[in-house]
Write a structure and sequence with these properties.
- The chain has 263 residues and is of the alpha/beta class.
- 42% of the residues lie in helices and 14% in strands.
- It has an 8-stranded parallel β-barrel with strand order 1-2-3-4-5-6-7-8, surrounded by 6 helices.
- Strand 6, helix 9 (184-193) and strand 7 form a beta-alpha-beta unit.
- It is globular and about 70 Å long.
- The mean pLDDT is 98.
- Bound molecules: 3-methyl-2-oxobutanoic acid (KIV).
Length: 263
Amino acid sequence: MNILDFKKRKNEHRKISMVTAYDYTSALIAAKTEIDVLLVGDSGAMTMHGHSSTLPATIDMMELHTSAVVRGAKEQKFVVADLPFLSYRKDLNSNVAAAERLMRAGAHAVKLEGAAGNLDFIRHLVESGVPVMGHIGLTPQSVNQLGGFRVQGRESSDAERLMTAAREIESAGAFSLVLECVPSSLARQITQALTIPTIGIGAGPDTDGQVLVWQDLLGLNTEFQPRFVRNYCTGAKIFADALNSYAHDVMSGDFPSLQESYE
Ligand code: KIV
């Protein structure tokens, strides 16, 4: 998958699969799968660092996770990295410096949230050779402004605002757009209105692609199960069972065996 394939996939009605990744080992696993895109999401502040929102993600954190994922992806996957909270809301030089750190860490594109106040920056990045993925709907970096993690675009005025934002982000040069937690009908309308692909999370079946968080997809997070998540395995239970087996084998003396020891 490269940047040109995104539009191609939309035009050919072939869906795009994206999953978040934050570390080398996970990226190594994903690199050998049919997943199209890895997103080094700022959700890593929550899933990897235990924070209650994405706001504590920093450019240092994102750069570190991006370089680990890129090493694991081994040029097999298109890697998008999130610009973290406020890192692209400063002066142009600082904003570019933030994007530069993620691109130099090996990302193929950056993602940023919202349209208002970001359009000139998106244009500037695109003109500078940096592909940009937009993100509207529930934009977690604005959780304090939105009053919580809640579905966006239910009111018609809100839906119109999101449609306008989607068109503006496309016009500014973004190559794709994440739609997070919006009603399916609105996601369908936005998807039909744009020539760039939409990638949904909690946005119903009619977007051009889907994205899930690694821990949700693999059932590693037993504390959080929103309606839009499907667990494709019971990862937390599989890991816990394996850890218990190991602990029992250590206690019983069954591990290590002679074959697992040096003469
Ligand atoms: O950070 C993240 O995981 C994201 C996805 C939810 C799209 O932005």
